Structure formats: structure tokens, C-alpha cells
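User: Quick sanity check before I run a bigger batch. Here is a single chain. Can you write out its predicted 3D structure?
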Amino acid sequence: QVQVVESGGGLVQAGGSLRLSCAASGRTFGNNGMGWFRQAPGKEREFVAAISRSGGSTYYADSVIGRFTISRDNAKNTVYLQMNSAKPEDTAVYYCAAGRFGYASTKIYEYDYWGRGTQVTVSS
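Assistant: Done. Predicted structure follows.
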């Protein structure tokens, strides 16, 4: 089992920055690829970014390429999502998840352990 807890959400103006953190505990953190997903009101949960267990591979949704950066610190059992140049359409609840495998997956069904989410609101 892996437990994940997100933090760092809040209100930011368009063009601003925010850093989300995801603290993981339980099974050896370094074995899991990790991902960030988001869900806006009335929409399905969607992939945002993923990172492999070593941090050597990352993937991003087209909508965040060049603006968001995912990283991890295995010594601290923590994954980060740096959000820059935020847009109102980034407003959503952001979820961190631990993957079933060690690679960076973009597929929601390959993530078994989810946090409760943190709200990000970008004002125009």
C-alpha cells in the first residue's frame, strides 16, 4: 500500500506560479512511477504529468507543456508539480497518484493509489 497526500493548492492570478507537493508513504516510494491528474467541475479526471521512479523520464499533457514541471525527491518521498504561467483553464482539483509500475504512465487506469486532491484556482 502507498498513501499519498497532496498540498500546496490555492488561489493564484493568471500568469502566476504555484508548486504542488505530494508526500508518499508506505511501500518503497522509489519503486513507483508517480503522476498528477486534475479534474475540473463537470469534467472527467485528466492526465497532467508523470515521472518515472528514477525521475529520468517525464511526460506531460499537451496543455501544460512548457508551463508545468514534474519532479521528485526520493530521499524525501515527495513529488512536486511546479506550475508556471498559470491559466484560468488550469483551475481544477489536482490529484497525485502512485503508479502500478515504475515507468511514467499517462494512463489513469495504471495508477492504484490516489490522494484526496488539492484545489487550484486561477483567477483571470
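The two ends are 40 Å apart (CA to CA).

User: Great, the batch can go ahead then.
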